[in-house]
């Protein structure tokens, strides 16, 4: 097993006043040639947006874009005709394909919205743009893995054009869970949302990230109550 540790404090830090974003990988004005991606996982942004503020209409192309709200309400509008609100417990996916434009705004004036924006490089180019969102039952991840994304339309969660699987888990202190890779050639990026865990011989705290590869399974043990996002992705671009 090989690991790649990214401590929370080493992430890029962009504070625009209305937007405070922490970048696990190079993005916008944050550039580190050693932190460009983890395989096809290209962007992992941890965003806070002030009340009533947001991202105006802007384009995307040939990228799988996943949004996971952590608190608050995020309003989405796009050129496909979708006008929706996503909130904690939801997961949103957009296949940009041949091109799409969208905007994202904090729906509330009096509280911030916090969400993860994740970009995955697709394995199929120039598809017809598509949008989907679902609401997850958090009880289904209590001390067990809850699949929230996969390559398969028939599986639990949303799907994308890539051999990637995302899972979430809420672990009570001292509880363990074993993650078995779907593809042995894939890597797994572990991102601690809250609490602390041990994985791959590493102690991980809130917002730490750990890339794991050259193995077919890994055990996660909570050292305090923890919430974790696991992203299994191909390592070859």
**Taking Cα atoms only, what radius of gyration do you get, to the nearest Å?**
17 Å
Average pLDDT, rounded to a whole number, is: 97
- Taking pLDDT < 50 over at least 5 consecutive residues as the criterion, the unreliable ranges are none
CATH homologous superfamily placement of the largest domain: Jelly Rolls
Number of helices: 0
CATH topology of the largest domain: Jelly Rolls
Spell the H/E element sequence. Answer: EEEEEEEEEEEEEEEEEEEE
Biggest sheet details:
9 strands, mixed
Multimer state:
single chain
Report how far apart the termini are: 21 Å
What class do helices, strands and sheet pairing give?
Answer: mainly beta
Helix content range of the residues, please? under 10%
| Number of structural units classed as domains | 2
GO molecular function: metal ion binding
Cofactor: Fe cation
Pfam families: Pirin, Pirin_C_2
Family: Belongs to the pirin family.
Give a verbal description of the structure.
The structure is a single chain. This protein has no helices and 20 strands. It has 237 residues and is mainly beta. The chain folds into 2 domains: 12-135, Jelly Rolls (Sandwich); 138-234, Jelly Rolls. Strands 1, 13, 14, 15, 16, 17, 18, 19 and 20 form a 9-stranded mixed β-sheet that branches. A 7-stranded antiparallel β-sheet has the order 2-3-4-11-6-9-12, with no helix packed on it. Strand 7 and strand 8 (83-87) form a beta hairpin. The mean pLDDT is 97.
Q: Which SSEs are present, and which pair or pack?
A:
Layout: E1 2-6, E2 12-15, E3 19-23, E4 41-49, E5 54-60, E6 64-71, E7 73-78, E8 83-87, E9 90-95, E10 100-106, E11 113-120, E12 130-135, E13 146-150, E14 158-159, E15 165-171, E16 176-180, E17 186-199, E18 202-204, E19 209-213, E20 217-234
Parallel strand pairs: 13-14
Antiparallel strand pairs: 1-19, 2-3, 3-4, 4-11, 5-10, 6-9, 6-11, 7-8, 7-10, 9-12, 13-15, 15-20, 16-20, 17-18, 17-19, 17-20
